[in-house]
Design goal:
Length: 161
């Protein structure tokens, strides 16, 4: 997937999420999700600035955080906990950059799969992960509570030697 920012907007960078990013990340969370994490739930996830056993990255465009990506690794699988791009910067290739950079970063480290759970009502996320080559492999009834199921999407990483 090619990054689609125009030449004068090339100051996109990816870095670890820091404590100072908390408010902005929560702002994006509330902007884009119908059922966002509360700040307490988010703080629990982000205890001491790092997710317990997980990793959080942000994308910065011209020094403004425009998206984040939270994942953890279980055996040979990367489980995507959350990925979000703010509304002004969707469909500019930033979400796919997170995924593609992760695949490259894990080259040769015995990571074979990505997994992500998408709420059944979140068609945008399903279309995004489908476009990235993920396959829906299971339905998880009531995963997000009563009457809110999820689809489990999986991606098998194939490295070209
Ligand atoms: C899902 C999300 C992270 C995608 O990020 P993004 O930076 O907008 O995605 P990209 O620009 O990299 O899109 C890559 C491809 O995915 C597909 N895609 C992405 N969003 C899409 C949408 N809303 N409708 C249809 N296809 C979509 C397209 O094929 C797109 O390529 P194209 O723009 O050349 O057609 C973003 O829409 C978002 O933050 N959504 C709200 C939060 C969310 O639902 N997160 C997922 C939780 S499981």
């Amino acid at each position: 997937m090619v990054l689609m920012l125009s030449p004068k907007e090339t100051k996109l960078r990816f870095r670890w999420m820091l404590d100072k990013d908390r408010d902005r990340v929560l702002e994006i969370e509330r902007e884009v999700f119908r059922y966002p994490y509360s700040s307490e739930e988010f703080d629990d996830l982000l205890a001491t600035g790092r997710l317990r056993g997980a990793t959080a990255l942000v994308a910065e465009l011209d020094s403004i955080v425009v998206g984040y990506f939270i994942y953890h690794t279980v055996s040979e699988t990367i489980e995507i906990i959350s990925i979000a791009i703010d509304n002004d910067n969707k469909r500019r290739g930033i979400g796919s950059q997170f995924i593609n950079r992760m695949i490259e970063a894990k080259r040769g480290i015995d990571i074979r799969y990505f997994e992500v759970r998408c709420a059944e009502v979140n068609l945008d996320s399903q279309l995004f992960f489908s476009a990235m080559g993920f396959k829906a492999v299971a339905v998880l009834p009531n995963f997000y509570g009563d009457d809110m199921s999820a689809y489990l999407f999986e991606y098998k990483i194939e490295y070209q030697e």
